[in-house]
Amino acid sequence: MAEVLVYVDHVDGAVRKPTLELLALARRIGEPVAVFLGAGADTAAPTLAEYGATKVLAAEVPAFDAYLVAPKVDALQAAYEAVSPAAVLVPSSAEGKEIAARLAVRTGSGLITDAVDLEAGEEGSVATQSVFAAAFTTKSLVSRGTPVITVKPNSAAPEVAPAAGAVEQLAVTVADASKGTEVVSRTPRESTGRPELTEAAIVVSGGRGLNGRENFHLIESLADSVGAAVGASRAAVDAGWYPHANQVGQTGKSVSPQLYVAVGISGAIQHRAGMQTSKTIVAVNKDAEAPIFDLVDYGVVGDLFEVVPQLTEEISARKG
Amino acid sequence: MTMRIVVCVKYVPDATGDRYFADDLTTDREAVDGLLSELDEYAVEQALQIAEAADDAEITVLTVGPEDAKDALRKALSMGADKALHVEDDALHGTDVLGTSLVLAKAVEHTGYDLVLCGMASTDGGMGVLPAILAERLGVPQMTLLSELAVQDGVVTGRRDGDSASEELRAVLPAVVSVTDQSGEARYPSFKGIMAAKKKPLESLDLSDVGIEEDQVGLENAWTTVLEATKRPARTAGTIVNDEGEGGKQLAAYLADGRFV
Ligand SMILES: Cc1cc2nc3c(=O)[nH]c(=O)nc-3n(C[C@H](O)[C@H](O)[C@H](O)COP(=O)(O)OP(=O)(O)OC[C@H]3O[C@@H](n4cnc5c(N)ncnc54)[C@H](O)[C@@H]3O)c2cc1C
């Protein structure tokens, strides 16, 4: 069976969930070969093997951290040349998309970004995308070269499918041209202890209705009561009430959880672009005419300062 | 020496209206109102600020698109850009990101550049990869998704707020930069700006002018094929309750039924 490259997203060897989802999708179209860049390949390999990686091509060079994006493209290209894959799958993070795009140019291949599903087809892998703020669903395939496809988090369920997954060193030469953008310093984002926004099964988001940074604890308590990630509308982010890293929408994160809870958010098209594919949507808003109510499975028209504390309390009571 | 700034902009269907696919499954650009992609306004704004801070700079706005795309160029000119370049050719219809980036790269080289500025993504396709591809094609540093930037003595520095970290970046010009909507509000064109824009040069080029063959672009030669586009079914109307003192409890009960609690 043809091999499919899967670019691994990880934090110091801890494999992030979207990569496991990619392995499940890769198995539908071929044999997954993981490409692991940076430190921690030996830590990651058992997990990658458990989820179906037939081997793990690993490389660790200082240039990955010292320069932006391009050295990782060099490495993925080396893996591409070593394997001649049937397809290349990359997680749809900002960086993942850029790496995939540059690889597509170098290999003369077509590119599909932000796929939400992938299946084998007669003329090649068919990718499903959700476009125009999720108003349309498209199915596409790559018609030239090797399909390079980036896949959004929560697009498939990880599947345990033990495979060999032995680590093989990948020889990487970083071109001088790839050292153009120097990373002068890097400040890791502080961990909140909550699930990663894009990967979470439940997201609770707050908007302008919160009326101040000091009220976001209502959103956080609700989120914590159900083990959710916290999101925010751009209005709340622009007002400085919550970090931009938590923004949901067109220019923030795109999320597709099992449950999305919108609190004090009107439901503007740019916000919907980032959450409309959520499985279940609920909202609390005092304006019965707010567009968010067109999307919801369940909505409460009311004052969030009354409804949300009662909701959190009731959830805690039910948990006992 | 004059710093040559080229801002790549896109003419897109208005996101607040309904957007459609045409019969050939390309984005319908005729049945809907179009405008300069809002995210490109941030790039124009940064170009203006960089030019204002520089001794000598010239801003060219560049677009690849149909006749109406001139509207996007005029908007950028009215904001303060100096001149505009429009690559327009019937053969371009249906070109995907790899083809468009090829045309932009050729056009940028044709006009000459020190700094190429882009928005973070288009508001229609929304791929967000064109700036990285442009850097790859031009063989210059990629400084993308910056929420802050400065250009001084031929060096561009800026901050990229990534998924897991915030990075301070540095590159020597020429370079390709893209800016996010966190980079600073874009100015509104003034009345004077709108009047002045009418007299600014707007040059049209076709594919042969920038050295592209017809078989490198267009729907037939796209690297991807859209098989089908279906309107997402409207979400079935949900249950809406008015809070009469029990709204929180009712919602909790709904969530418990759905096994979220
Ligand atoms: C190019 C571009 C990109 C954008 N990208 C994004 C993006 O990524 N994400 C995003 O979110 N937006 C984005 N926006 C902005 C978007 O258009 C909206 O302005 C924004 O989403 C509004 O945020 P909001 O719903 O919190 O605020 P509002 O629209 O002001 O809504 C606040 C809501 O809170 C309700 N409310 C007020 N008080 C209470 C109360 N006490 N109890 C209950 N309800 C209450 C109100 O009824 C109202 O519906 C973008 C805009 C543009 C032009």
UniProtKB/TrEMBL annotation, chain A:
Q: Which residues form the Electron transfer flavoprotein alpha/beta-subunit N-terminal domain?
A: 4-187
InterPro entries, from UniProt?
Answer: DHS-like_NAD/FAD-binding_dom, ETF_a/b_N, ETF_a/FixB, ETF_asu_C, ETF_asu_C_CS, Rossmann-like_a/b/a_fold
Q: Which cofactor is recorded for it?
A: FAD
What are the record keywords, sorted? Electron transport, FAD, Flavoprotein, Transport
Entry's SMART domains? Answer: ETF
SUPFAM superfamilies membership: Adenine nucleotide alpha hydrolases-like (SSF52402), DHS-like NAD/FAD-binding domain (SSF52467)
**Assembly description:** Heterodimer of an alpha and a beta subunit.
Q: What does the record give as the function of this protein? A: The electron transfer flavoprotein serves as a specific electron acceptor for other dehydrogenases. It transfers the electrons to the main respiratory chain via ETF-ubiquinone oxidoreductase (ETF dehydrogenase).
Q: Which family does it belong to?
A: Belongs to the ETF alpha-subunit/FixB family.
Q: What name goes with this protein?
A: Electron transfer flavoprotein subunit alpha/FixB family protein
| Species of the source | Streptomyces luteolus
TrEMBL record, chain B:
Q: Where is the Electron transfer flavoprotein alpha/beta-subunit N-terminal domain?
A: 24-214
Swiss-Prot/TrEMBL cofactor(s): FAD
Alphabetical keyword list: Electron transport, Transport
| Family designation | Belongs to the ETF beta-subunit/FixA family.
The free-text function statement in the UniProt record for this protein reads: The electron transfer flavoprotein serves as a specific electron acceptor for other dehydrogenases. It transfers the electrons to the main respiratory chain via ETF-ubiquinone oxidoreductase (ETF dehydrogenase).
Complexes and interactors = Heterodimer of an alpha and a beta subunit.
- Cited PANTHER family: ELECTRON TRANSFER FLAVOPROTEIN BETA-SUBUNIT, ELECTRON TRANSFER FLAVOPROTEIN SUBUNIT BETA
Q: What is this protein called?
A: Electron transfer flavoprotein subunit beta
What species was this sequence derived from? Streptomyces luteolus
